[in-house]
Design a protein that fits this description.
alpha/beta; Rossmann fold; seven-stranded parallel β-sheet; 9 helices
Length: 289
């Protein structure tokens, strides 16, 4: 299927690794001109070079999204290199390095997590929105998390910030719906990453498997210990990237204000409260993103 993204300029924040890098690569395969963003030059260049090696087009911008001046500079740089940005993927963010629970969580941690996730997205969005409005076309996709709607007991700052991302998505979507701009969120569930791989292999050792056992065996044994995923597997980065590419395409022009859960069926659908109450382990569920 032709997603009609050829020549579109796409900025993917936090795309020097992980889900962001996968999203950037997918857009490049669809013919888009991708701006790879990160704070580490070497990592960002590696992603851009990999895209170029596959025949894609990519540029690199660097900057800390918690710094207003740095955001202005990186967006100016992106425009100089690629032209007016058509599509923004707010992927940068993440949880704090030190996991806190409700016995030790601090306001300072919440403030830092909010700045890194919500305000970072706001800084970039607010600066790109005027040109999208002028063009009467644009796509904004915020990468949220299943933790926003099914928050675990631990990491309350992260869950709350992703819930704020969802609210921001819905509000902005209403504000620009008549201007040719769509705004949507994607909520990943348990997605295969370097961090998840390490945690799963460590858990495999505790349950009698070799750390270098085939992934399928590790996944089958360890996944139920982390999350109850009805489809029976861990999500892949491509699952998120494919969803982002579709939502950004002209084919999805009538979809806005949505929160697309890409979670293998983990989240109960249609407000099914009984599905939640049947899960005895819902308060201890751990999401590894």
């Amino acid at each position: 299927m032709d997603l009609q993204l050829d020549g579109k300029k796409v900025l993917v924040t936090g795309s020097s690794k992980g889900i962001g890098a996968g999203i950037a690569s997918k857009f490049a395969l669809e013919g888009a001109i991708v701006i790879v963003h990160g704070r580490d030059r070497m990592q960002a260049d590696e992603v851009a070079h990999a895209i170029a090696g596959q025949g894609g087009r990519a540029h690199v911008v660097l900057g800390d999204l918690t710094d207003d001046h740095a955001v202005e500079n990186l967006l100016d740089d992106a425009t100089r290199q690629a032209g007016t940005i058509d599509i923004l993927i707010n992927n940068a963010g993440g949880s704090s390095a030190v996991k806190e629970d409700w016995t030790a969580t601090r306001p300072a941690t919440w403030a830092a997590t909010y700045d890194r996730n919500v305000l970072a997205a706001l800084r970039v969005t607010s600066r790109l929105l005027p040109t999208m409005r002028q063009a009467r076309w644009g796509r904004i996709i915020n990468i949220s998390s299943l933790a926003a709607t099914m928050p675990p007991a631990g990491g309350p700052d992260y869950a709350a910030c992703k819930a704020a991302i969802n609210a921001m998505t819905a509000s902005l979507a209403k504000a620009v719906a008549a201007e040719g701009i769509t705004v949507n969120a994607i909520s990943p569930g348990t997605i295969h990453s370097a961090t998840l791989d390490r945690k799963f292999r460590a858990a495999a050792l505790e349950h009698g498997l070799e750390a270098d056992a085939p992934w399928a065996m590790i996944e089958r044994t360890v996944l139920p210990l982390f999350a109850q995923v009805p489809v029976g597997r861990v999500g892949q980065v491509d699952d998120i990237a494919n969803a982002a590419a579709f939502l950004a395409s002209p084919l999805a022009a009538y979809i806005t204000g949505s929160n697309l859960r890409v979670d293998g069926g983990m989240s109960p659908g249609l407000g099914n409260k009984s599905a939640v109450t049947r899960r005895k382990d819902v308060t201890s569920m751990r999401y590894v993103l």
